[in-house]
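ok trying again, last paste got cut off:
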Amino acid sequence: MANSSRWYKLDNAAKIVPSQAHGADTRVFRLTAVLKEVVNKELLEQALQEVAPEFPIFNVVLKKGIFWYYLEDSEIVPVVSEEGEYPLEAIYYPGKRNLLYRVNYYRNRINLEVFHVLSDGTGAFMFLKHIVARYLEIRYSLDSVHFDDDVSSMQENSTDDFDTFYEKSASLEQLKNMESSRAWQLNEEKDPNLRCHLLEGVISAKKFLAKAKEYGTTVGVLCVALYIEAAIKRMTVRQKKRPIVVSVPVNLRQFYNSFTARNFFSVINITYDATEYNGSLDSIISVVKNEFEGQLSREKINENMNSYAALEHNIAVKMIPLFIKDIGISLFSMFATRGVTCTMSNLGKIEMPEELREYIDYFSAFMAAPSEQICVSTFGDRMVFGEVSPYVTHGVMMNFFRAITDMGIEVEISTNDFDIRDVDGGAGDKKKETEHKEGSGK
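nice, full thing came through this time. structure:
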């Protein structure tokens, strides 16, 4: 392991994470590899311990400084456990010296859960893919595999690329704009203990792509448009006075020459006026498509990235003591959350070396959220929607999946709840176990 005296500044996206981790929003996300055979714990632990040194930014503990949190190298040896009672439980506890990720398994699932200070979904998938690859090499006595998309060194995957690509920005205007308007919020029944409720839907990626082409748009646009339509069907006439706002994280690695495993993303907000809906999905797609095109230009992306990075470089912010920053960030986060209906993160295609694909069914992703977050990932022909919320019902998502089945695409649904109630039904049963129960997408 690395020398414990080495430390890292938190990247710009990570700086606000410890202050945001409250209640259902533990700021923990889960990446899952679903294999075709039951997982061997001992071999998985061996794989983890062999791969971990290649990703030093994951083998750290979180410490408090006077002005900011920071990460310090640790010699803690990572271990594997069987999945506990609840997913996405808190990882960071102030004053506790522990790794900020966990690896567990359940039957044929390998789960990597990560506190968001370390990485985003794309960066953490780098780590999980290597763990899974090493596990399969050991399990099936395979030759060492090579990742075609993996050209980063240990130094590169630990780089803070917000700092690398930052250009001087005049203000924190982008952050201020996040709290400028109030969006329609889900009105489902909350779990009294604010536990995370997970819903997973698996469909054919090829069929969904073909449907997107029929509508003359992209997979990402179609996903957001379908969600907006599903939400509109849950709204009363009075509620339609507030816009639906879908927050979409954007992987900045595709715009910059970046191979970091740390956080490196921006966010765009897709806003739709529900009173403009005329009963046609096309009417939503046209608005969403224009919003994507307007906000994903290189100039706009660069502007947003610099504005987020300005948080660290602002002298006034730098000099505020950490305990005051924590209070301010918590309040800002509360107001910013009011401006978003849902977050939908498309992690894109998950690539694995060809010789390993026959052992893997699919990958999925989940992110703890104060209201609702949907993560989309694709492996081969398996496209997966992973929804997380503190609600015991899944009304909007069931509308979402119904719309997909109405397109002629089958949906396989599983959940960590005992059952899935209908879109107009009441409370789902409280979560008492981690076993995924199979439901119907119709």
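cool. Residues 268 and 295 are 7 Å apart (CA to CA). Confidence is low (pLDDT under 50) at residues 418-442.
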